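Hey all, sorry for the wall of text incoming. These are the two entities for the joint prediction.
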Amino acid sequence: MSTLPHGATAPDLIDMRDVDKVFSNGTIALRGMSLSIKQGEFVSFLGPSGCGKSTALKMIAGLLSVSKGAITVNGHPAGQSRDGSDIGFVFQEATLMPWATVFDNVHLPLKLHGLGKAEARERVDEALAMVGLSNFATSYPRELSGGMRMRVSIARAMVTRPKLLLMDEPFAALDEMTRSKLNDEVLALWKSHGLTVIFVTHSVFESVYLSSRVVVMAARPGRVVHDIPLATDIPRTADYRMSTTYAETCKQVSTALEGTMTHVDLNH
Amino acid sequence: MSISTIDPETGLAVDLHAPDPRLLRERRERRLQLILPVAALGCAIGLWEFLVWYHEVPHYLIPAPSLIAKTLVTDGASLMQSALFTVKLTLLSLALAIIGGVSLGMVFALSRPIEMSLFPFAVILQVTPVVAIAPLILIYVSNTFAALLICAWIVAFFPILSNTAIGLRSADHNLRDMFRLYQATPWQRLRYLLIPSALPYFMAALKIAGGLALIGAVVAEFVAGTAGQNTGLASRILESSFRNEIPRMFAALFLVSVLGVIIFLATSWLSRAVLGHWHESEIKREG
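and here's what came out:
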């Protein structure tokens, strides 16, 4: 498939209606967030720190409760899917179990669903092959580089064959080279597996390169200020990074993002 | 000349032919690690022997190492029996401390209110010197062995309890989220996340508690001052001191030290065996 796997007729996978999140210390992390995400979209949540982008992602995953409003994922209230296997989550750090091998780390989601090592082997191997780490199944996380650890984390998220992949600033701690390589790998996964991806980032360039849609958020209180659809018919390659279209889109998104910063006390 | 190449997967330089100097250095270092302490210890004992002989120190003040060794042989049977008693007391109290500390630590980790209510008791038990409580325990508990066991247990119990409770809470919060996302059962969370996260803490506690259990066993016996057939090394030391048999005192003392060293080596080995492949504290770094 050369064109993107979503279309105007695709059903809503995620629906957020007027969602608030207030933490117990009184901080309003998110106010009145409404958003629909269709199946097959690649959506970036872009914004300064404190804009509630990670909070929104965790609420969609069901890891944080909703203070007001409602979130449905695939028709179910967030966090109440059958067994969590239709969502993959990639954290900011690789978040691997240091005592377990790469294989055992990737096996974990299946193990928690009662699938033994022998039964799961094929799927774990498949997930490791997906991220190019087939030769490292018996390694321990500490033996791997940061980029490789992040790949393991992605393999673990993909091993349940989810429809929805949630990524919380996954590559923020990596060097530029590794980062752009992993960006391409995530794009390839998105296309080949018909995924829906929500990608939290504070990098304009990353969001423009990856997404079919950028949701720009502002802080204090966290809210959505722009919802920018991007042209999806251009192949995202190294050439795209050099193109004027890319530069112009980055400028447009950048301007939208700067608009959110005017009221923010930068010394905070 | 050695040929080196870059491994495309790991990006690490791999040396193809050269005899690995790192390996040689490592082997030499390991040999030194054994030779140096043994040599130092040997020198110290030799110096002791020499000084006692040279100054003609009477054996009831400081016996020469050779005399202590002779006493170890002549009194071997009775000393060994005492050592066995001390070993039994130490290991049993350590085992009970592990069982009690781990179970209560798990309860603490599961329930804050229970921890808040019971923790003061644990602290009081810990900070009160066992020498001070021992006489009371000896009055209330008629069976001497049981009384000694309780004293040694009190000392070894606390580090296991507090470290288990802290360790079980130390699991990475993102990993906790992961387990929630995949709807892990409480048992799965305990088995696959909390217990492995707590292991380094538990192992550190075990190393401390092993030594403390021995100290507790010896101290308790000193306070009890028991005499007779079924007694430990502390009783031998007391008894020898009453009878002014200083070489025997040193011999018993030597056995206590040996026990302590064995416990230390055993717990260190166990810690490395359990954590060596993943935890920072036990991983060998290349310098």
